Amino acid sequence: MTSFPPPPSPPGGIADRLRQIRDRMAEAALRAGRSPEDIALVAVSKTHPADRIEAAIAAGQRCFGENRVQEAMAKFPALRARHPDLRIHLIGGLQTNKARDAVCLADTIESLDRPRLLDALAAAMDRPARRPDRTLSLLVQVNTGHEPQKSGVPRQDADAFIAACRDRLGSAVRGLMCIPPEGDDPAPHFAWLADRAARHGLAVVSMGMSGDFETAIAQGATQVRVGSALFGAR
Ligand SMILES: *Cc1c(COP(=O)(O)O)cnc(C)c1O
After folding, report:
1. Whose CA is closest to atom 13 on ligand 1?
2. Which atom of ligand 1 is nearest to the CA of 231?
3. Does the beta carbon of 225 lie inside 6 Å of ligand 1?
4. Alpha-carbon distance 170 to 165, whole Å?
5. What is the gyration radius of the CA atoms in the chain, in angstroms?
6. pLDDT for residue 136
7. Candidate from 91, 143, 147, 207 with most ligand 1 atoms within 8 A of CB, to mutate
8. Pocket of ligand 1 contains residue 209 by CB under 6 Å
9. Which regions of the chain are under pLDDT 70?
10. FRET pair for 171, CA 20 to 30 Å: which of 20, 32, 112, 200?
């Protein structure tokens, strides 16, 4: 009798790419003398439709990154209703008028980068419309490359701003995030961020994207944010 096993996922499908990325992450960790379990993968699903996200969920991925609050609110409540263990990271520049929605939706906001946003997030967290069972983590984004048009607190203001965030929000402030300038060698940016997190006793170091996540792991990333290498070009 002929049996019909489910077809293997096509070469280059999301399940295959997820496995390849996880393998590359583990190899980079071992090369750096680190434990692969200490590095999390944030699958950056911005611009990609819910069915691609479902494919990644089916392959075991639970943590996703989006850079726009509105897009995340359009896609994730339905996904989360089916998969209550999903975790959502907001990784894009955040407007203060979106702070309340961001606090309601996200598990981690990675783009805390200025005093007015700190005020808006603190106010939103005081009157939470959140499910009480979820905690919110915040990362301070640092503009390590001094790029005027980019989000992130300037390097020279980082220490004072991190201290202000922790005074206000306490242990919700979990770590640091950066995006090195395109074209720069990312390694010194990553090294700076990991060192700064260690000096402040912050556990989470979010750095590394599709093109440089292995370098980021070598420099101490505890989470990498990978989009196009997993979901394809945007
Ligand atoms: C889009 C984005 C990523 C993912 O970039 P890829 O190069 O597609 O992996 C990571 N971090 C942030 C902040 C992003 O906006």
Report:
1. 91
2. 8
3. yes
4. 7
5. 18
6. 95
7. 91
8. yes
9. 1-11, 128-133
10. 32
> Tokens at residue 234, please?
């945007």
If you write DSSP's letter for every residue of 129-160 in order, what string do you get?
A: -S-TT---EEEEEEETT--TTS-SEEGGGHHH
Whole-number Cα distances in Å, 111 to 147, 164, 197, 220: 15, 15, 15, 19
Distances (CA, A) of 229 to 34, 44, 178: 23, 10, 19
pLDDT digits (tens, 9 = 90+) for 107-135: 999 999 999 999 999 999 987 666 666 78
Alpha carbon distances (Å) from 135 to 84, 108, 124, 204, 222: 14, 9, 13, 15, 19
CA of 196 to the centre of ligand 1 (A): 22
- Report whether residue 111 contacts ligand 1, using a CB cutoff of 6 Å: no
Neighbours of 170 (CB within 10 A): 8
Six-digit token string for 48: 């990609």
CB 92 within 8 A of CB 111: yes
Q: Alpha carbon of 228 to those of 119, 134, 182, 196: distances in Å?
A: 33, 29, 16, 28
Residue 81 burial by Cβ neighbours in a 10 Å radius (0-12, 13-18, 19+)? exposed
227 lines ligand 1 (CB under 6 A): yes
Centre a 10 Å sphere on the Cβ of residue 31 and count the other Cβ atoms it contains.
11
Mean pLDDT for the chain? 94
